[in-house]
């Protein structure tokens, strides 16, 4: 019996050694690094953000309907949104469009942004940009880079004017724009 027990321990030890010897050190240490482009991160933020925004009754997508995301430069985001028609959670379209829940303004001159914001003024559209000047113009969410990390700012007054309610959970993660140029 002792012989079988000893053989079992040796086999178990050999198996354990084999598992650790064949597993890369990076996987064991948990220090695997991931990299993503800024556009990829923005697309991911947009996809997550909509879960923390409430639209007025009848405006938000109903069960089974996708969020319509309009972008001034669809090419930057096309590969990050699924074209799966069976269960579309998001539908990416080129701006201008008749209907959208979210409008992402990227690579657009300030003058054009001002005209777009005037056109959609008072409509329940979550506007997202990437220039601090946009916040003064009335955009709701603005992406910024801080120490090499993508962060976002929220303009609660712009959200109120659009009839959108931003979750306190999202507000706690954001830098809140209050109208100061220093933010």
Number of strands: 9
Structural class per helix/strand content? alpha/beta
Query: Largest beta sheet: what is the strand line-up?
Result: 3-2-4-5-6-7-9
Major sheet characteristics: 7 strands, mixed
Percent of sequence in beta strands: 15-25%
Task: Please give the alpha-carbon distance between the first and last residues.
Answer: 74 Å
Query: Would you identify the regions where 5 or more consecutive residues have pLDDT less than 50?
Result: 12-29
- Report the CATH topology name of the largest domain: Rossmann fold
The ordered H/E elements are: HHHEEEEHEHEEHEHE
Overall tally of structural domains: 2
Radius of gyration: 24 Å
Summarize the structure.
The protein is of the alpha/beta class and 183 residues long. Helix content is 36%, strand content 19%.
Write a structural description:
This protein has about 180 residues and is α/β, with parallel strands linked by helices. The protein folds into two domains: about 1-35; about 40-175, Rossmann fold, CATH 3.40.50. It contains seven helices and nine strands, in the order αααββββαβαββαβαβ. The chain has helices at about 1-20, 25-30, 40-50, 110-120, 130-135, 155-160, 170-175; strands spanning about 55, 65-70, 90-95, 100-105, 125-130, 140-145, 150-155, 165, 175. The chain has a seven-stranded mixed beta sheet. It has a two-stranded antiparallel ribbon with strand order 1-8. The radius of gyration is 24 Å and the shape is globular. Residues about 10-30 have low confidence and may be disordered.
